[in-house]
Amino acid sequence: MSSGPIGIFGGTFNPIHNGHLRSALELKENLGLEQVRLLPAARPPLRGLPELSAEERAELVEQAVASEPGLVCDRRELSRQGPSYTVDTLAELRAELGPARPLCLIVGTDVLERLREWHRWEDLLGFAHLVVMARPGWRAPDSGQIAAWLAEHGGGVADLQQNPAGKVMMQQLRQLPISATEIRDMIARGQSPRYLLPDAVWDTIQRLGAYGARVEEQEQHGIC
Ligand code: ATP
User: What is the DSSP code (8-state) at residue 219?
Assistant: First the structure.
């Protein structure tokens, strides 16, 4: 059985879009990950409930990754009772995958800036590495508790591959300025979000009438 590092990319995915997908694929390739698991959150503790059900959001993630074997949808947070805390998810994955497998929790810089609001944030590195997707020009905090924590635990790609957990690293990725909020707003205004997200995902959103999509606005797939 293979023992390569596993990436864990959580989000609301309301809906999943090409910004998420491109980042997941680039991280897989840049860090030599065996797989990136996309984990839709059942009940994000820090945000309001989204309008699609968790199962529907997961279905969209499944469709988005269907043709890319290195990306998979992991539904484990959907069946959990109560809030889905990342530290619980990591503990579960660690128990399943064994003590030696490198696990990399992937987060945006927005998450790093609010990390101390996370449940048991100081325990995260006991279970996984933390990979922060940084925009060009973004500067990590240079003072305070998070800065000290980053300095103490900073590592590189080799550290991530050779150790099961415990390091933090920044990764600069191609920037696709796409947000799920913008996609929801476009759909509600009657505009097409096509090419910002996979066709299969947009087709399903229209079929479900999600985010205010109207069935009569469906675009035709023609062959030229
Ligand atoms: P919303 O607009 O509803 O806040 P979102 O597009 O930011 O949603 P989330 O599901 O909240 O999507 O994001 C999950 C993760 O993906 C977060 O770590 C976030 O920083 C990251 N992310 C969001 N948009 C992009 C993007 N365009 N490129 C790379 N990463 C992204």
Answer: P
Ligand 1 center to 107 CA (angstroms): 9
Paired tokens of 196? 């910002």
Contact 169, 157 (CB under 8 A): yes
The closest-lying atom of ligand 1 relative to the alpha carbon of residue 107 is: 18
Residue 129 pairs in a beta bridge with 104
Q: For the chain, how many structural domains are there in total?
A: 2
Per-residue model confidence as pLDDT tens for the chain (224 residues): 568 999 999 999 999 999 999 999 999 999 999 999 999 998 654 455 557 888 999 999 999 999 999 999 999 998 887 777 899 999 999 999 999 999 999 999 888 888 888 889 889 999 999 999 987 778 888 888 888 888 899 999 999 999 999 999 999 998 899 999 999 999 999 999 999 999 999 999 999 999 988 865 455 555 55
This prediction has a pTM of 0.90
- Looking at the fold, whether 89 and 155 belong to one and the same domain comes out as yes
What is the spatial distance between Cα 55 and Cα 107, in angstroms, rounded to a whole number?
22
Is residue 50 domain-shared with residue 142, that is, in the same domain? yes
**Which one of 17, 20, 21, 173 would you pick to mutate in the ligand 1 pocket, going by the greatest count of ligand atoms within 8 A of its CB?**
20
CB of 133 closer than 6 A to ligand 1? yes
Q: What angle do CA 71, 196, 38 make, to 5 degrees?
A: 25
CATH for 18: 3.40.50.620
Instruction: Indicate whether 140 and 201 sit together in one domain.
Output: no
Q: Spell out the residues 6+ positions from residue 76 whose beta carbon is closer than 8 angstroms to its own.
A: 39, 89, 92, 93
